[in-house]
Every structure is written in C-alpha cells, then in structure tokens.
Amino acid sequence: MNWRASVLTLFPEMFPGPLGLSLAGRALREGRWAIDAHDIRAAATDRHRTVDDTPAGGGAGMVMRPDVLDSAIGAVMPEGDARPLIYLTPRGRLLDQATVRSLAEGPGCVLLCGRYEGIDQRVIEARGMVELSVGDYVLSGGEPAALVLLDACIRLLPGVMGAADSAAEESHGAEGLLEYPHYTRPAEWNGRAIPDVLLSGHHAEIARWRRAESERITKERRPDLWARHEAKQRGAGGMDG
Ligand code: SAM
C-alpha cells in the first residue's frame, strides 16, 4: 500500500498546497503517496460548528475541544490504523532527519494541526499522540508545520528522488554532518573563483576537500551536531577496536 497522510485541520484547502507541485507533486500524481485533508469543524455538533472554548483557569485565547478532536480523529483513523498520530506543536520534540527517515519507512501518518492556543491536553494523552515541533518559534497554526514534515518525508519515499538528487551525501545524513559548499559555472563570478581542487578532476582530493569542509562547517555552525558526530565516531572506534 502507498504511503498515506491524513491531515486534520480547520483549513483543508491548504493541502496538498505546495506539495502538489515539483518533486512531491509528481510523486503524488504517480501514486507514490496519497493525502486526504479533513475539516475538524465537520466533527462539531452544535449549530455554530464550534471547535474551541475558553481556557480552563482563565487566560488569553481559545483551546480546541477534546470531544470534537476525538471524534474528528475517529473518523479518519479506523481501528487498527498503524499510522502514528502526530500533533504538531512548538512544545513537541524537534523534528529531525532520523524521525523523518523512520516516518518515511512506515505506512504514513495522521497529522493534527492546532490553531488558537492549542488543543486540550486530555485528547493528547487519550489518543497517545506523538508531539513534534518543526522549530523553536511559534507559528499561527500547525498547517505549515505539517507541510514541512510531509515534504521531508515524501522526498525519501522510494522512487521520488532520482539518482541525480540522491539523499546519500546531504546534510543530516548517517554521519550527522552538514553538507559541504556547492559551486557551478561560471568558473569565475564577480571576482570569486571556484576552489581549484573542484576543477582538478582529482576525485580523491575532491572527496577529501568536501569532507574537510563538511567538518569545518558543522564544527562552526552546529557544535551540538559536531559533539554528537564525535561521540558516534568514538563509539564506532570503540566497537571496532
Ligand atoms: N500556545 C502555544 C504555545 O505557546 O506552545 C502555541 C499555539 S500556536 C499559536 C497554534 C498552533 O500552531 C499549535 O497548536 C500548533 O499546532 C502550531 N504550531 C505553532 N508553532 C509550531 C511549531 N514550532 N511546530 C509545530 N507546530 C506549531
């Protein structure tokens, strides 16, 4: 069966949105993945289709109701649906490439997009939601976060990326390093030249230069990733030796 994403949102018209274009859009048309977006409001039971209410304990904003969300989830996740139910939230674990890879290897996912102040805690617990964040900043809704998560997963699905744009050597790969810099023609542009080594045709030298640049950039920009990379190298060395 194809990888399938179901999205619960107050704005189903936002999907597939940009994912209907380019690489993801072609893969969607080829049936390599599928998406269905559902309006949470359809699960509301009152005349005004209310999905939110004031926060218990007072304070600003509104909170999405657990009963409405639970019934919206029930309508898209039949008993035995093996896909993880993910709530996009700035309070969640930061989405990283390892999580993306594991999601892409699974059957798909069900994404819940919050609005207002967020959703009632009880439905998070009752439904065993996985809480994921796309970064340490606050969006006005979970929809852009869902698009980010989906884009990252879809490009890893079998047959989506051609050999030309393979994921083998990019940032956040198996080594946990950031990628080296890229250059293309012209060889000189506005007084800036492409590093000689890249024009040397010497593959081993090029590979050495790229590796050194990857390490330098990771060390400089992301000491956290560098520390993890070093620890992993030490661990691997320890097992070999
Ligand atoms: N009151 C919440 C807080 O302080 O954590 C923020 C609510 S935000 C205005 C509304 C919705 O946007 C959230 O329920 C969530 O679904 C989504 N959202 C906002 N920032 C996000 C992020 N960094 N990652 C994932 N989802 C996010």
Q: How many H/I helices?
A: 7
Order of helices and strands: EHEEEHEHEHEHEEHH
Shape: elongated
Class by SSE composition: alpha/beta
Number of domains: 2
| Radius of gyration, taken over Cα atoms and rounded to an integer in Å | 22 Å
- Under the CATH scheme, the architecture of the largest domain is 3-Layer(aba) Sandwich
Strand arrangement in the largest pleated sheet: 2-1-6-5-7
Total number of β-strand segments? Answer: 9
Biggest sheet, in brief?
A: 5 strands, parallel
Parts with pLDDT < 50 across at least 5 consecutive residues: none
Mean pLDDT: 95
Strand percentage lies at: 15-25%
First-last Cα distance: 43 Å
CATH class of the largest domain: Alpha Beta
CATH T-level fold name of the largest domain: Alpha/beta knot
Binned, the helix content reads 25-40%
GO biological process, one term: methylation
Keywords: Cytoplasm, Methyltransferase, S-adenosyl-L-methionine, Transferase, tRNA processing
GO molecular function: tRNA (guanine(37)-N1)-methyltransferase activity
Function: Specifically methylates guanosine-37 in various tRNAs.
Structure overview:
With 241 residues, the chain is an alpha/beta fold. It folds into 2 domains: 3-154, 3-Layer(aba) Sandwich (Alpha/beta knot), CATH 3.40.1280.10; 168-240, Trp Operon Repressor, Chain A (Orthogonal Bundle), CATH 1.10.1270. The protein is built from 7 helices and 9 strands; from the N terminus they run βαβββαβαβαβαββαα. The chain has a 5-stranded parallel β-sheet with strand order 2-1-6-5-7, sandwiched between helices. A two-stranded antiparallel ribbon has the order 3-4. Strands 8-9 form a two-stranded antiparallel ribbon. A hairpin with a 2-residue loop joins β8 (188-189) and β9 (192-193). α3 crosses α5 and α6 (203-221) packs across α7 (223-240). It is elongated and about 70 Å long. The model has no long low-confidence stretch (mean pLDDT 95). Bound molecules: S-adenosylmethionine. InterPro entries: Alpha/beta_knot_MTases (IPR029028), tRNA_m1G_MeTrfase_C_sf (IPR023148), tRNA_m1G_MeTrfase_TrmD (IPR002649), tRNA_m1G_MTases_N (IPR029026), tRNA_MeTrfase_TRMD/TRM10 (IPR016009). This is tRNA (guanine-N(1)-)-methyltransferase. Specifically methylates guanosine-37 in various tRNAs. Homodimer. Residues 5-227 form the tRNA methyltransferase TRMD/TRM10-type domain.
